[in-house]
Amino acid sequence: MYLFSGGILFSGLNAQVTDSLQQDEDDFSMYDNLDFADEGTKRYCTSKIQGLSPQKLVSIGYDFQGPYSLSSGVLGNNYSESESQINFSHGLRLQGNIPLISRNSVIIQLNVNYAEQRYSFRELTGNIHPLEYWLSNNGLRTSGLGTTIFKPLNEKQFILVQASGDLNGDYGWNNLPDPSNTRVSVAGIWGKKAGDKKMWGFGISRTYRAGDLNYIPVFLLNYTSANGKWGTELLLPARGHIRRNFSPRSMAFFGYELEGQTYRLNSDKAIQGAPQNIELRRSELRFRTMYEFSLSGFIWLSFQAGYRFNYSFNADELPGNRDFFRGFFGEQPYLFENLPAGSFYSLVSINLVSP
Known about the structure:
mainly beta
């Protein structure tokens, strides 16, 4: 499309040059005092670089994880350690990034997301562990609302802010969790656009990606090589990919993503004697290969496959129904500890991308 537009522009310029040569008697002195209309106007950098994967405005996906084992820890005096097998886990994923304000001086987007994970267990009998009951009967869900703000400071520097509030748990639509259980994540980055093919930045994030509430430094690097074939898309430690561009409408990625949240359990109050303020600290590393391409115009397909490695799957009882900060070095004991084995996974999505 750009080449076609460029051809029209080039033809127009040729016509203008030819006309001016034929009209050599024109007097151009009248334009001596002409100024550009935007002279003195402040210029800003943009949020895009050449070769970067297109932003997904609307995404509908399906996530599937192959069979794996689950070890559920001791809970109180009534439930001992339990070993079970999960045939598979799967779920729908929905995401929307809706532009609210799009100006040279600021870009503000509304972010909406929904994700679920349902679990199919093999032969659960006898005194079923509460974790097995919650996962097999209710699964896990997250519903979130947030915003992304890109604020350029000048032609080189910018500030990027992301914030979201998420309701996570084993709830259904008939027993939604209390809004006071909303978990807030925030990240702020100062960055620099070093050219049309490179931008970088660093900042700090309040996040639940590691399961527990944590405050961690973040590093951003979006880069495309001089020949346009290779690049990186990094937002460490959340995710990092090496990108291979086959064309502007076809690209592959190799890397990982850290996914995680806290999930309120026992929402249906079905397990007698189990605490009411339990949160599952779920976090996993996904090592993956992705391939994305344009199916038609701005409609893209995305395929990814890889290996899911468990980072955290332990549970806390929240004192006074309020979350607390453990960090990487806290010594607060968990209510009970669990260990899901790793598994292979795949995810396919159809996406409406930005121009």
